[in-house]
Amino acid sequence: MFSREPTPRPGFFHDTLRPMIRFENVGMRYGMGPEILRDVSFHLAPGSLHFLTGPSGAGKTSLLKLMFLASRPSRGLITMFGRDIATLPRAELPDLRRRVGVVFQEFRLLDHLTTYENVALPLKIQGRPEESYRADVKELLAWVGLGERMMAKPPTLSGGEKQRAAIARAVVAQPDLLLADEPTGNVDPEMGKRLLRLFIELNRLGTSVLIATHDHALVEAAGAPELMLKNGRLTIRG
Amino acid sequence: MAEPRQTARQTPPPAPREEAELDHERRGFGGALKALIVETRSVMPAAGATGLSLVLVVAAMCFLASLALGAALTVGRTSADWTRELSAALTVEVKPSDAMAQDAEVEAALKVLTDTPGVLSARALTRADTEALLEPWLGKGNVTEDLPLPRLIDIRIDGHAPPDFDALARRLVEAAPGAILDTHRQWQAELVRAARSAQWLAYAVLAVVAATTIAIVTFATRAGLQANREVVEVLHLIGARDRFIAAEVQRHFLHLGLRGGLIGLGLSVATFVGLGWYAQTAGSFLMPVSGLRLEYYPALAGVPLVAALVAVVTARTTVIRTLHRLL
Ligand SMILES: Nc1ncnc2c1ncn2[C@@H]1O[C@H](COP(=O)(O)OP(=O)(O)O)[C@@H](O)[C@H]1O
Ligand SMILES: [Mg+2]
Questions:
Q1: Closest-CA residue of chain B to A122
Q2: Residues B204-221: pLDDT tens digits?
Q3: Across-strand partners of B182?
Q4: What is the edge-to-edge ordering of all strands in the sheet holding B151-157?
Q5: Residue range of the domain that includes A167
Q6: Number of other residues whose CB lies within 10 A of the CB of residue B90
Q7: Which residues, at least 6 apart from A211, have a Cβ–Cβ distance to it below 8 Å?
Q8: Under a CB-based contact definition with an 8 Å cutoff, are residues A86 and A163 in contact?
Q9: Which stretches within chain B are classed as H helix?
Q10: Where are chain B's structural domains?
Q11: Which of A88, A125, A201 to mutate to test the interface with B (most CBs of B within 10 A)?
């Protein structure tokens, strides 16, 4: 169905031998507040599919923020794609961010752009000319069922449509890692199942996927390993 | 779904990232010029705090700046003209008087003149010189020895630091009762002084307007970024480089500055043309008949360019500073 193969990158096969994300004793706090995450250690292998679960307020979004380089840990070591992010020069962060697709919990679509422009944004910021990606973006939009809503602006989209636009934007640049924050939080169970199938399909095409959710039905339906957050600590099941 | 797959495979692989980025930035002079005039769709929203109201503020500021600049240039030119006239020869006339011998009067007047700062040189014309001046009217040899002729002293003054003509005239009369300073230029010197003050005042206004514009554009950029913080943050998080985001914001402010600047320029040109027309019909003395001299219009055209430059530089520094606060 989704035809585009992931682009092999230099060192691709080498990367498969190492985890693409590794957390070691990571702690995180906001400002002077309490530690939201404590001694979090795990790794994600290339091509894997994981769930991140925990009650609301457990720190799922905070953990994802560390992974899409929106915040820094207050302690511990994080390596992404083999690089220690603490020692990485600022100028190299955009390249890492481009390898991570994010479906934000509140979507964060840009209201003044059309759905098409929103989804094309990760390609546009790479400086690619529009002719080089127009067809791909349209194909992707059709694939997530937004072919008819291409020229609509986000405020006129339904919750499920926004969700799918956000997912399309996250995967359009063929990231190595896809992070989805409560992607089924705003849609009915039927749409939830469709979105899950979409993530599984992407995973089959080679993208590592991490889905944060507090929806246990979703986790059971997929039967994938689960990172469980509780009281700031992480346990791994499966 | 099978067809698009085929076409997708046939498209050549995209150029390596860096090269594509450079390619995009290098669109040549024609593209750059077009981009200046027509605002291409940006990923930054155009409306908000940085929209129409800022265009109007920039327009008003550029109008004031153009007026101040035009006034400074015109007044500067006028005062320079007057200064040049002032530095031309002035004349002291020594009439024959009963009190003193004429030669003694000329001597005394010369001494006063050479002692006066601002007088560059003073040369008394001989009686023969004076007779020569009269020849065209009286004919050669018709000037008799006993004809009472005034003696003239040719003086040159420093136009940049003219002497106080009132005081000089007084001292001349004290020293030589028959000496009369041709003081009709005295008021002209006063005017030069006034014009020069006016010129500095105009430049001061220009400086204040420029500083105010910079401050306003800075505030507006900050406010605009605050309003578009979500956009900037999302662009940042999906991997946009600082210079991409800065370029998007800058582009917006370039158009804004240019648009406001051109409106202000248009208003000021209309004002100068109107003043010129008024001067022509009603007669005016500070403003040359043509309004603003043609050669000064290019300088005015610089005002919107400077406004756009200020807007762009301010926007860029503000964006970069904001982005550096993010990880
Ligand atoms: N920007 C922030 N500043 C301060 N505290 C925050 C911030 N974001 C989240 N928190 C706090 O961190 C904790 C974890 O939040 P979050 O990561 O959003 O949890 P979850 O996504 O699992 O619901 C909560 O107690 C929340 O109040
Ligand atoms: Mg959350």
A1: B238
A2: 988 998 888 778 877 876
A3: none
A4: B119-124, B151-157, B90-94, B179-181
A5: 114-173
A6: 24
A7: A49, A50, A51, A52, A180, A183, A199, A218
A8: no
A9: 2-10, 17-25, 28-37, 52-86, 102-115, 127-138, 165-175, 186-227, 229-237, 242-282, 297-325
A10: 45-82+190-326, 96-177
A11: A125
> What gap in Å lies between CA A38 and CA A73, rounded to an integer?
10
Report the distance separating Cα B133 and Cα B318, nearest Å: 73
- Residue partners of A229: CB distance under 8 A and separation at least 6: A37, A52, A53, A54, A58, A59, A60, A63
Length of chain B: 327
Residue of B nearest to A97 (CA): B239
The reply to whether A167 falls in a domain is yes
Put simply, the answer to whether B20 touches A128 (Cβ < 8 Å) is yes
**Looking at the 3D structure of chain A, how many domains does it have?**
1
Which residue's C-alpha comes closest to atom 5 of ligand 1?
Answer: A30
Matching residue, tokens 């002084």: B193
Determine whether B147 is exposed, middle or buried from the number of CB atoms within 10 Å of its CB (0-12, 13-18, 19+).
exposed
Query: Strand A177-181 vs strand A208-213: parallel, antiparallel, or unpaired?
Result: parallel
Reading the block at residue A105, the tokens are 């919990």
- Facing A128 at nearest CB: one of B14, B230, B239: B14
Long-range pairs for A138-141: beta carbons < 8 A, 24 or more residues apart: A139/A3, A139/B4, A139/B8, A140/A2, A140/A168, A140/A171, A140/A172, A141/A115, A141/A116, A141/A168
Q: Which amino acid is at A1?
A: M
Tell me if A227 is assigned to some domain: no
Question: Does A22 fall in a domain?
Answer: no
Judge whether B237 is closer than 8 Å to chain A, CB to CB: yes
Buried/exposed A198-217: b ≥16 CB within 10 Å, e otherwise? bbeebbebbbbbbbbbbbee
Question: In whole angstroms, what separates CA A126 from the centre of its chain?
Answer: 18
Which pLDDT value is given to residue B12? Answer: 40
Tokens describing residue A215: 């929806």
Q: What is the pLDDT along chain A (238 residues), one digit of tens a residue?
A: 444 444 444 444 444 457 889 999 999 999 999 999 999 999 999 999 999 999 989 999 999 999 999 999 999 999 999 999 999 999 999 999 999 999 999 999 999 899 999 999 999 999 899 999 999 999 999 988 899 999 999 999 998 899 999 999 999 999 999 999 999 877 788 888 888 888 998 899 889 999 999 888 888 888 889 999 999 999 998 7
Q: A133 φ, ψ to 5°?
A: -130, -5
Task: Report the alpha-carbon distance of residue B244 to residue B232 in Å, rounded.
Answer: 10
The residue-averaged pLDDT of B221-236 equals 82
What is the ipTM for the molecules in this complex? 0.90
Pairing of strands A177-181, A75-80: unpaired
- The pair phi, psi for residue B322, each rounded to 5°, is -60, -45
Of B310, B302, B9, B184, which Cα lies nearest the Cα of A136? B9
> What is the rounded distance in angstroms from the CA atom of residue B94 to the CA atom of residue B177?
8
B238: how many CB neighbours lie within 10 A of its CB? 26
Residue A156 lies in a domain: yes
A89 inside 8 A of chain B by CB = no
